[in-house]
Amino acid sequence: MGKRGRTSAAALAVENIKENNVISVGGDRRPRVEMTEREMHYWRTVMDSPAGEYIHPESHPLLYEYCRLAASCDRFAEMIREVESGDEPMSGRVLKDYDQLLKMRERAGKAASEISVKLRIAPSSRVHKEKAGTLAGRPRGSRPWEE
After folding, report:
1. Cα(first)–Cα(last) distance of the chain, in Å?
2. Measured between alpha carbons, how far is residue 38 from residues 6, 74, 83, 94, 141 in Å?
3. What is the 3-state secondary structure (H, E, C) of 40-79?
4. What confidence tier does 27 reach under pLDDT thresholds 50, 70, 90?
5. Residue 73 pLDDT level (bands cut at 50, 70, 90)
6. Are the C-beta atoms of residues 126 and 120 closer than 8 Å to each other?
7. Are 35 and 69 in contact (CB under 8 A)?
8. What is the structure's pLDDT at 137?
9. What ranges do the domains of the chain cover?
């Protein structure tokens, strides 16, 4: 037997969410004020992606750390490119600095990768292995009849 009376707007919204399998998290989705422009770019990229819909406000400190590390990786890559494009041969101090930059970028990259898995930003943490096999078998690009 059904419920008596009219269905409330809140109940209708919950039913709509259940039907579409969408979970709305709400909360403030804006980047922190103290973030650099590069860090804000990563924040917006994540929050505008499908994974951003599932990042709860209590995960924002972890997302902030991810953005900070991703921006650091970019800075290290720029410094590595500068060393590689230099006119002088890599020896002595230059080679030591170059090696140190490579190590720092690797550490920051690993840490960012671990956080991306924890936040479920990385596609590998959102796709089940069975579905991944199915997706891998699909042809890429447009099909002949779609051209």
Report:
1. 54
2. 50, 9, 22, 27, 32
3. HHHHHHHHHCHHHHHCCHHHHHHHHHHHHHHHHHHHHHHH
4. low
5. very high
6. yes
7. no
8. 66
9. 35-126
Are 116 and 55 spatial neighbours (Cβ–Cβ below 8 Å)? no
Separation of alpha carbons 30 and 63, rounded Å: 12
Per-residue pLDDT of 88-125, as tens digits, reads 777 788 888 899 999 999 999 999 999 998 888 877 77
pLDDT class of 38 with cuts at 50, 70, 90: very high
Residues 59 and 119: their CA atoms lie apart, in Å, by: 8
Close Cβ partners of 59 (under 8 Å, ≥ 6 residues apart)? 119
Contacts of 116 (CB under 8 A, 6+ apart): 66, 122, 125
Q: Higher-confidence residue: 133 or 83?
A: 83
Tokens of 129: 């292995």
Structure tokens at 89: 């041969």
